[in-house]
Amino acid sequence: MNPFKLTSYFLSLIIFVICSSFLTVFQPKAVISAENIYFPVGSTKLRLSVKSLEIFAKEGRITKEFEFFAKRLKPEKLERLRKLLLYKFNTTPVAVSQLTYSPIGEEYIRQYGAMIKTRTGQNGFYAIRSALVLAAADPEGLTGLSFIRHFPTDIQISVKDFLELLDELSYLAG
After folding, report:
1. Each residue of 113-144: pLDDT tens digit?
2. Reported pTM
3. Cα distance between residue 73 and residue 152, in whole Å
4. How far apart are CA 64 and CA 70, in angstroms?
5. Closest residue by Cα to residue 116 from 125, 108, 107
């Protein structure tokens, strides 16, 4: 075998091994998103998986896990929740970004961030802003469900705040 070809072969092999090593080390990581919504009640937190909420919204089916929460909502509130989760806002990521970075947009998000908190109880301001922009860029569009799916951490919201938010936003889904 020609020494030049042998050297070229080994060099190619070494480059291949190095590149393969980098690809396995620097693999893209899965996107972190909300998997659960926590409702603090006293010293405990009730948990609802986003998956159960998604099944309810898309199929109208109440899972065993969601049943606990569904029983505590009047049928009309349950229907409002379903409509709100599926309602598609006709907007673009650029428009959402511009709104969320405007002074009035930031003020509204801070107010909602006091209700929709991160898993650790921090104001959800940055998580809400991020979720809104990412959900607007989602092929499904900006919906209640896509917003929750793009929320970068589990969500914590009090039952009282959740019900107020549901009433406040229900006019959107008509």
Report:
1. 999 999 999 999 999 999 999 999 999 999 99
2. 0.78
3. 27
4. 10
5. 125
